[in-house]
Structure formats: structure tokens, C-alpha cells
Amino acid sequence: QMQLVESGGGSVQPGGSLRLSCIASGFSLDHYAIGWFRRAPGKEREGVSSISAITGGNTDYANSVKGRFTASRDNAKNTVYLQMNSLKPEDTAVYFCAAAYGSSWYWQPPSIVDESIYDYWGKGALVTVSS
Question: In the prediction, which pLDDT does 122 show?
């Protein structure tokens, strides 16, 4: 069964850091680009970041997280990461990873606006930023 599972969520004080992991099971992430999304309480889901398929791939970020969040991947571990630094209360949300298949995304990070390009979704990990 093909699955994406997020881990690493939790509670942190403002200014703190967390690292989310997105682990694939049942398939290889070698040919999949990954997008990170979040849904804050009472809000629509929004794109946060994306990374192209190759190890050391190219990345894209929403303006709200640029300079604070970093996406990376280790294809040997079938895992993608989202390092989140300088967290703010408004970063509180359930974070999802999603996988997009295709040669279009080998070098180019996939859109974090068009959710229809993603083939698989994780169930999410809760991140709470509060003092």
C-alpha cells in the first residue's frame, strides 16, 4: 500500500524549531517531487514549500515561510524533510506532505498552489506554536 506518513510535529514556543519528516512506504520517492501544505484552524489548506525529485533538488517557498523553513530530501532513506525555524504562532497548523509524479518535477519544484498535480497525500502532523 502506497502511503506518506508525516512525523516530527509537536508543540514549541515562539522562536523555536521543529523538523518534519515525510516518509514514503510502498513506493520509491526517487521519481516524486514533494509539496508541503498546512491547514491552520479555521482556514483553508495552503502551500508552504515544495522540492523537486532529485536529491539536493530545487525548492520553492511561500512568502510567509521564506527564510525560516527549509525543505530537503534523502532519497536513499525515502524521506523528505521540512526544517522549520523561528516558528511563530501563526505557523500553528496541521502540516501535510504530498507527492507529485513526473519528469516535469525532476528539476523544477512543483506548484504549491495547484494541489491537483499531487498523487499521494499524508494524513498530516500537528504543529502548535504557543507560549
Answer: 97
Helix (H/G/I), strand (E/B), else coil: 31: helix
The residue type of 127 is V
Sign of CA dihedral 43, 46, 48, 54: positive
Q: Could you read off the pLDDT of 46-55 as tens digits, one per residue? A: 999 999 998 7
Cell numbers describing residue 108: 523544477
Residue pair 20/6 in contact (Cβ under 8 Å)? The answer is: yes
Q: Tell me the three cell numbers of residue 54.
A: 532529485
pLDDT for residue 118: 96
SS3 52: coil
120: β partners:
99
- Residue type at position 56: G
Residues of the chain below pLDDT 50 = none
The set of cell numbers assigned to 84 is 522549520
AA letter at 116: S
